[in-house]
Please model this.
Amino acid sequence: MSRPRITFGVLPDDFYVQFEPWPRIGRPPKHDLSAWTVTDDWPERVPVTQAEVDVFEAWFGDLFDELFGSGR
Model:
């Protein structure tokens, strides 16, 4: 049985420009990406417990099967 499709009608053309954005608190972001430095300080192998694997399989198992194929 399929669910009935929900429709919301037509959104106004200026829906996204009706409001001014909230001013951000703190230092403004640096938009010059050439000056950014990305540092990877993670170890080569990251230890993961079996409990962590179980949680990811419980929540994302269907997605993992779709992406990587079922291991069964």
Observations:
- The chain is about 25% helix and 0% strand.
- Helices lie at 50-68.
- Residues 28 and 34 are 17 Å apart (CA to CA).
- The radius of gyration is 23 Å.
